[in-house]
Design a protein that fits this description.
Blueprint lengths: L1 H11 L2 H12 L7 H28 L7 H15 L6 H11 L35
Helix pairs in contact: 2-3, 3-4
């Protein structure tokens, strides 16, 4: 029954969504929310639109009437350099986690109710003083 619903929804999808679904299946992703395909389509559309807008700006700066391959390559390179970052190496993250986990967490007090910080850090504490009536 679920496979039949997936097939019916795949037939209703636009061609780009079908291609993205096939890419996900080829990567071994079989169980995903249908909104994932929509999010990937939105990301791809926004990314390509931004690249072409940047390429148009580069072409106008070079006094060209048409966008050529160099403009697109420069736009992609600019996007990659400023939009995407590579994650730190796994070894570095493990060292950082080990160092951070050396200090134990504080013990939980045996009090019930809301645990609030000291009064001077709370908005519920008094932040004014009343001057006595001097006559």
């Amino acid at each position: 029954m679920a496979n039949q619903q997936k097939k019916e929804s795949a037939q209703v999808q636009p061609e780009d969504a079908t291609i993205l679904s096939l890419v996900l299946q080829s990567l071994g992703v079989s169980d995903y929310d249908p909104k994932v395909v929509q999010q990937l389509l939105e990301f791809a559309h926004r990314y390509t639109t931004d690249v072409f807008q940047d390429a148009l700006i580069y072409a106008e700066h070079a006094s060209k009437t048409d966008i050529d391959l160099e403009d697109i390559q420069l736009a992609i390179q600019g996007r990659v350099n400023h939009s995407f970052t590579t994650p730190p190496p796994k070894e570095f993250l493990l060292e950082l986690a080990e160092e951070k986990n050396k200090t134990p967490l504080p013990l939980i007090p045996e009090k019930y109710g809301n645990r609030l910080p000291a009064d001077k850090y709370c908005l519920t504490g008094l932040n004014f003083s009343i001057a006595p009536n001097v006559s």
